[in-house]
Design brief:
single chain, alpha+beta, Lipocalin, 8-stranded antiparallel barrel, 4 helices, globular
């Protein structure tokens, strides 16, 4: 839980270049985005250090906000860790830009910079180029697809060398 608590501190203090130049997905449908997403790859973050099998489950609330339930397996402790947060659309509901909070009133930018037409693969940028996630609906994303998404992140200005692949073996059915 401590690693997640520090996430906001890292977001606030990150000295990386802002992602304000990245375009977010238009024609976004929040209803189709709901459900479980698995991390295929990410930039390393203190709040996810030593975590594998990370997933995020999004559920639309009656008030229009989105419940966010993040879950990951902490290897050193051999146990699952979860944290619940809330997300809000930053502006237009047809634009894939949210703000997410695990510790109100502090919110962080969540930019969907790539989303395939089937809503099965996504690239998420944080407020700076220090934050990156590659998500998929299937915990067993084929290597060819993961590589294609990593190449897309490079085109967006991210560094391949910093990307870590996320083990999803405990989420395979």
């Amino acid at each position: 839980m401590k690693r997640i608590l520090f996430s906001l501190v890292f977001l606030a203090l990150a000295g990386c270049k802002s992602t304000r130049d990245l375009k977010v997905v238009n024609d976004f449908n929040p209803d189709r985005y709901m459900g479980v997403w698995y991390e295929a790859a990410r930039y390393p973050h203190g709040f996810e250090k030593g975590m594998s099998n990370v997933s995020a489950t999004y559920t639309l609330n009656e008030d229009g906000t989105i419940k966010v339930l993040n879950k990951g397996y902490v290897e050193d402790e051999a146990e699952w860790e979860t944290i619940e947060g809330v997300a809000k659309l930053k502006s237009d509901p047809n634009v894939g830009w949210l703000k997410v909070s695990f510790f109100k009133p502090f919110y962080a930018s969540y930019k969907i910079v790539y989303l395939d037409d089937a809503y099965t693969q996504a690239i998420i940028a944080g407020p700076t180029y220090g934050y990156l996630w590659i998500l998929a609906r299937d915990p067993d994303l084929p290597e060819t697809e993961r590589e294609r998404l990593i190449k897309k992140t490079e085109q967006l200005g991210y560094e391949r060398e910093k990307i870590i692949l996320v083990d999803q073996s405990k989420n395979l059915k």
